[in-house]
UniProtKB/TrEMBL annotation, chain A:
One Pfam match: SBP_bac_8
Signal as UniProt keyword: yes
Coiled-coil blocks: none
Superkingdom of this protein's organism: Bacteria
Region called Disordered, residue ranges: 405-426
Entry keyword annotation includes Signal: yes
Name used for this protein in its record: Extracellular solute-binding protein
Basic and acidic residues: compositionally biased ranges: 406-426
Annotated organism of origin: Streptomyces parvulus
Signal peptide start and end residues: 1-31
Keywords linked to the UniProt accession: Signal
UniProtKB/TrEMBL annotation, chain B:
Protein's membrane topology: Multi-pass membrane protein
Residue span, ABC transmembrane type-1 domain: 88-307
InterPro entries listed in its UniProt record: ABC_transporter_permease, MetI-like, MetI-like_sf
The protein, known as: ABC transporter permease
SUPFAM superfamilies: MetI-like
BP terms from Gene Ontology: transmembrane transport
Subcellular location(s) per record: Cell membrane
Membrane spanning stretches: 28-50, 92-113, 125-146, 178-199, 229-250, 286-310
Taxonomic classification: Bacteria, Bacillati, Actinomycetota, Actinomycetes, Kitasatosporales
Gene Ontology CC annotations of this record: plasma membrane
Annotated source species: Streptomyces parvulus
Family annotation (PROSITE patterns): ABC_TM1
Keyword entries, A-Z: Cell membrane, Membrane, Transmembrane, Transmembrane helix, Transport
Length: 426, 317
């Protein structure tokens, strides 16, 4: 049952697959007529289907297969494939939160700079490019796909009920800072007592942390969660608001959370561009027109967004790098944003494209999503993630949950978070 | 060939009548037949077991590979880790909470199925239905049933006035253990019932008849005839349930839908296998995870040995 056993099993499976592949080579046409199959592995739908079809049309002799798995599973699988040295796809997506975890094994990934990636540096948002290079000059681990620029989604009808302004520009003015956001929450709660102000303290904390350059780790990858005053400030603010009963205490992305969105249990939610799709799916048709989007407190921030990498174990690194380049090109990113997936581009020319800027969302009361998300994406800096960021993040999330469950007050939760993080980072 | 020659010399004279060419095979064949098991066990059982022990003696990152040799440090760290004791308690608690009622219920179900029912095979097939359903689906459905806000269980409990406020099933030790035990019971009761049923059918019918003639009621017959007759089967199910129960993973893993193997904010339902998964596959600390898996292996071995001894004693008694 040990991880090694799983690894060995995985290796054995991979070996078996490789054998099968060999057999296919012998009998099939792969080698004979020079056809090449590239695999692209992503989590959730990246909107690549039409792009892949286009690529296959313009590149006769190359077949592209898509492999989509669930978020955590995708990244855990990649760890296993990297560890066992085989089984990884030719082009693999890595989400920014998981990227640092692979920093320690970056030599297992093709340096895209060897395949002309450096020519694209000027196109990218500075901070996105920097994330993809892991801060190593001359090395490019991945081409940036999308970014998750932050906003706040709010229930227009509930705001009206509470006597708050409903126009998105005025709503944005209600909360220049997070303090003002929580104060507005108090005002809201005093008038609409049976609704919460936000969905989950964890999401608020994450959003705040995504607005700082350094969170749990400093530039030398040292854990500073216990000494960085920002971490304490954000933690205590989210915890205090939760203790004040502003949170609907819904665990993010759980069934309860989805049901909570559908039932309209809270008035606001932290809203990266990709969250709009989550809300629309959870709330369904009945929620259409009830939601709107306003600016986020604290002026912008980034949450989410991915990179396309090429593991060194790929037999066709050159072709894979070309495909990754194509899938993140300006034309491709624009197509994805204006398509059903709607992920926000990470390229400056696309973000400034009038057509992209003019995009609106019908579901969110025709909110100018292009304007809202694209304009705030420009003003951002990178936020540094430590190699063990996730291992620090989880104990803090657990501690906030304790406040939501009424098992600890904010100070107790803070102490617990520090203890548990120390333990988890050993 | 060497074996064949050797066996010829040691063959007792009584077997000399066997045609010469069969003699060697006679000695080899049985071993050949069981060899695949040992080969497969060696590759997938023994080798990983030893390799896991080797890994546990190192500071070993799953991605970066072998690091420094640390001796038994991982085991020492484990013994000082309060999470380890929480996980051990959780594992045993969920195991007891789910296994005892489950086996009792299975006995009852088997007893009912052992009588002459209409559409007998339909009932017997139905009992096994929970086994066909994927454990992932079971866990998802149950976590919805035990949901805080819109769960049916809370709705019923509130409706009957048993509770005032909705229970947050994942939040507390007792409630999470109870909910997870229900999932385990749902999945395994029917399976054990069928095993008991098979054993009950093998009980000689004349024993029942003589009990009946002696005027014993149904309950008394069950206690004095059925139970003693199927005791070896009960021991078998207890051993199997113990091994399964101590390795419980999917149900607690899927219960809170976080996918991070934390087992709740205070690890209140983190089992040993969840802890193993957390360190091995989330924190990538293969050395520590291997230590956990070895300790788990030892715990199971000890419990199985105790089971075995108890069973032997009860058979003698």
């Amino acid at each position: 049952m040990g991880p090694t056993r799983a690894r060995r099993t995985a290796a054995a499976l991979a070996a078996a697959t490789a054998l099968l592949a060999l057999c296919a080579c012998g009998s099939g046409s792969d080698a004979a007529d020079g056809r090449l199959t590239l695999t692209v592995a992503t989590f959730s739908d990246f909107g690549y289907k039409p792009l892949i079809e286009e690529y296959e049309r313009t590149h006769p002799g190359i077949d592209v297969k898509e492999r989509i798995s669930q978020f955590d599973q995708h990244h855990n699988q990649l760890s296993t494939q990297i560890a066992s040295g085989s089984g990884a796809a030719d082009v693999v997506a890595i989400e920014e939160g998981y990227l640092p975890k692979f920093r320690a094994v970056k030599d297992k990934f093709t340096n895209l700079a060897d395949h002309g990636a450096l020519d694209r540096e000027d196109e990218y948002l500075d901070w996105k490019w920097e994330q993809g290079t892991l801060g190593t000059p001359g090395f490019v681990m991945g081409y940036g796909t999308d970014v998750g620029s932050l906003a706040i989604c709010y229930r227009k009808d509930l705001f009206e009920k509470a006597g708050l302004p409903t126009d998105r520009a005025e709503v944005g003015k209600l909360w220049p800072t997070w303090d003002a956001y929580f104060a507005t929450g108090e005002r809201f709660r005093s008038r609409v007592g049976d609704k919460a102000w936000f969905d989950s303290s964890g999401n608020i904390f994450t959003a705040m942390m995504n607005q700082t350059e350094y969170g749990f780790f400093d530039a030398r990858d040292q854990y500073v969660g216990d000494t960085n005053p920002k971490v304490r400030e954000f933690f205590m603010a989210s915890a205090q608001a939760t203790a004040d009963e502003q949170s609907a205490n819904l665990q993010p992305f759980s069934q309860q959370w989805n049901a909570g969105i559908k039932q309209g249990r809270m008035a606001t939610m932290t809203c990266p561009a990709w969250m709009t799709g989550q809300i629309a799916t959870a709330a369904g048709d009945a929620g259409a027109g009830k939601w709107d989007i306003a600016a986020v407190p604290g002026g912008g921030g980034n949450w989410g967004g991915s990179f396309l990498t090429v593991p060194k174990q790929s037999k066709h690194a050159k072709e894979a790098a070309e495909l990754a380049d194509f899938l993140t090109s300006a034309a491709a990113q624009k197509k994805i944003f204006t398509g059903p997936v709607g992920a926000l581009p990470s390229l400056v020319p696309v973000l400034e494209d009038p057509e992209v800027r003019g995009t609106t969302s019908e579901y969110f009361n025709d909110a100018p999503t292009g304007q809202l998300f694209a304009s705030s994406a420009r003003g951002l800096g990178p936020n540094y993630r430590g190699t063990k960021d996730q291992q620090a993040r989880i104990p803090f999330g657990n501690a906030l949950q304790l406040v939501e469950q009424g098992k600890a007050d904010p100070e107790e939760a803070w102490d617990k978070a520090l203890d548990e993080a120390d333990k988890n980072l050993r | 060939m060497a074996l064949q020659a050797a066996s010829t010399t040691t063959d007792p004279p009584a077997r000399a009548t066997t045609p010469r060419r069969f003699r060697g095979e006679r000695h080899l064949l049985p071993y050949l037949f069981i060899a695949p098991f040992f080969l497969v066990f060696g590759v997938f059982g023994l080798y990983p077991l030893l390799q896991t022990f080797w890994v546990s003696l190192h500071d070993w990152d799953r991605l970066a590979g072998a690091g420094e040799w640390v001796g038994l440090e991982n085991f020492g760290r484990l013994l000082e880790d309060s999470d380890f004791y929480t996980a051990t308690f959780n594992t045993l608690s969920i195991f007891v909470l789910s296994t005892a009622p489950q086996l009792l219920a299975a006995l009852g179900v088997a007893w009912l199925l052992d009588r002459h029912l209409r559409a007998q095979s339909v009932w017997r097939a139905l009992v096994l239905v929970p086994q066909y359903v994927s454990v992932v689906a079971v866990a998802l459905v149950f976590s919805q049933l035990f949901g805080r806000d819109f769960g049916i269980v809370n709705w019923v409990l509130e409706g009957t006035g048993l509770i005032g406020d909705p229970v947050d099933w994942t939040a507390d030790t007792w409630s999470s253990h109870l909910a997870i035990s229900f999932m385990v019971m749902w999945r395994w009761t029917g399976y054990n019932a069928l095993i008991y049923l098979a054993a009950m059918q093998a009980v000689p019918r004349d024993q029942y008849e003589s009990a009946q003639i002696d005027g014993a009621g149904r309950l008394l017959t069950f206690r004095k005839v059925t139970l003693p007759a199927i005791r070896p089967t009960i021991v078998f199910t207890v051993v199997i349930s113990t091994i399964g129960g101590l390795q419980l993973f999917a149900e607690p893993f899927l219960f809170d839908q976080q996918g991070n193997a934390e087992g709740g904010a205070e690890h209140q339902f983190q089992t040993l296998t969840l802890m193993l998964y957390k360190y091995g596959f989330i924190n990538n600390d293969a050395g520590y995870a291997s230590a956990v898996s070895w300790v788990l292996f030892l715990v199971i071995a000890v419990v199985a040995a105790v089971n075995f001894l108890l069973a032997r004693r009860s058979e003698r008694g």
